[in-house]
Write a structure and sequence with these properties.
Layout: E1 11-14, E2 20-24, E3 28-33, H1 44-50, E4 54-59, H2 76-90, E5 95-100, H3 102-113, E6 118-124, H4 132-144, H5 151-162, H6 171-183, H7 186-198, E7 214-219, H8 227-236, E8 240-245, H9 252-255, H10 257-272, H11 284-291, E9 296-297, E10 299-304, E11 310-315, E12 318-322, E13 327-333, H12 339-344, E14 347-352, H13 358-364, E15 377-379, E16 385-387, E17 392-404, E18 407-419, E19 426-428, E20 431-433, H14 439-443, E21 449-457, E22 460-466, E23 469-471, E24 474-476, H15 487-493, E25 497-508, E26 516-525, E27 534-538, H16 550-565, E28 569-574, E29 577-582, E30 592-594
Parallel strand pairs: 3-4, 3-5, 5-6, 6-7, 7-8, 21-26, 25-28
Antiparallel strand pairs: 1-2, 2-4, 9-19, 10-11, 10-14, 12-13, 13-18, 14-17, 15-16, 17-18, 19-20, 21-22, 21-24, 22-23, 22-27, 25-26, 28-29, 29-30
Helix pairs in contact: 1-10, 2-3, 4-7, 5-6
Amino acid sequence: MADAPASAWARQDTAPDGTGFIRAGSGAPVLFIHGVGMNAAIWQPQIERMAGKWDVIAIDMLGHGRSPLPPPSPELADYADQAIRLLDHLGLDKVSVVGHSMGALVAQELALRAPQRVLGIVSLNAVFRRPPELAEAVRQRAAALTGRGDAAGTAQTITRWFGDPVPAELEAAASKTASALGAVDPEGYARTYRLFARADGDHAERLQTLAVPVLFMTGSEDRNSSPAMSAAMARLAPHGRCIVLAGERHMMAVAAPDVTTHRIGDFLEAAGQGDGMVTSGFDSGEFRRALGSFLTGVTIVTTIGPEGEPRGFTANSFTSVSLDPPLVLVCVAHKASGHPVFATSKSFAINILNEDQKAASGIFASKAADKFASVAWRPGQTGSPLLDGSVASFDCDMERLVDAGDHSILIGRVRDFEHNSSQPLGYCRGAYIAPGLSQDALAAAQPGTDVGAILENGGRVLFLETADGFELPSGRGLGSAGDAKSLRGLLAAKAIEAQLGFLFAVWDDAGNSARTHVYYRGTFDVPASSDRGIRLVDIDAIGDLKIVDPAVRSMLARYVRECTQDAFGVYVGNEMEGEVRPLGKAPVSAASYTGDHR
């Protein structure tokens, strides 16, 4: 950072009322207002980076730089009126305003008092409703000010703003800041700081009336002008936005001038165009990869084209919207070949794929000429194709089409739906995932692993009745139909057609450390008869059964409870204690559980 006098990189001047200011560049006007203890020259990094495109004016606020003292007990209006007088002197009807700390409060006051004079505001490191302990510390510092120089206070301020010790890469910025603090008029500083100490709530009831776009920007490490403060102000301001710069502190305008100035310029350009939205400033490829971290299902969206031909595409951007009325949505890219067809259709269907439909997903994601030649389908109530084998399908009338960025959102009112118990196909980070049973994992399990299943059909669970009571189907390992001791061997011997699904519980045997129990949820087809000791028990009657194994009894109690809540988890632990890790619709606390919560 160049440490040349302001006259070397800007024009210094004084307004008729004695207000000092510097000015550089040409273009749309921007007024910069510094914080307590600084002066107009602290904005040198921004002026140097913006003067090629903007008419930059930096003011010395009252009591600072070359400007006169404020009244003995000033208000924010005194500083805002000073800025308005400067704009009048310069013949500027309307400007954008950038304020830092105390200057951010002045910028807000200016926009509230004279909204017709302001295009937009950038509030850097602004304070708002300080928490009690922070407010008390600021009040104590204000009360200690005597109107005389305070070298110790300057050192403490530099520590708060830059750290102790000051990082080597910030020494130049800290030195420039310390020079400004050392040059300020002690009385002007004291009067202004006392106002700053009590003005953090002055706009609390007025921010909702702020008519201009406002960017509230602070650093993640700024404890005195915290991210929470900026977010709260952005929430209240009708056109407010918040940006938090990672790793930055209170003096980020001089400590990180490139990123700070870039954000300022982007916002002011958008505000000048009547937008006021904050540009992302990040890599679109990385953004896409980050979005891909969200585990979703896979759907094929279908409709009938204008010539009566079936049309479809693969999508994972599907979600429910409303139960009453029944609404769902899916997104289609503007550049998709089928976009014109779906955007003008009066109906469409969403087919949620099962884990055996990966091939169909790939075909409908391609540019294949006849995608429907590879799948079996039938028309739904709206005429849209419903794919055989789907986990669920939703046949919809088009409720609304919404343009959003480079996609269109199809909001459908569900006219008809169907679903079954097959396992869904998942997708995450560019790869398909079968969230059901991992056959390979079980095949590689230790020989001492007991594998069992809670099999459900229509609200009833399958049990095996023995002389000692009831038990769930289980065996030594997953095995095969020919292995009589395995789970699959047992199911085959009992002629039970079962589909194993999600993991439900894993625990170590308390009496045999080499033995592990693994239980899955699953479904089954009702056997033709019940003469092989098979009993189908209503879920709400499971608690009345005689279950010999206490660990299984505890696990089933949790199963009944989670069926009622429709929110399932996975138990991991031993027979005595462990934890339930969430898996399902509703979050479940992962706090430690005792054995009776298995």
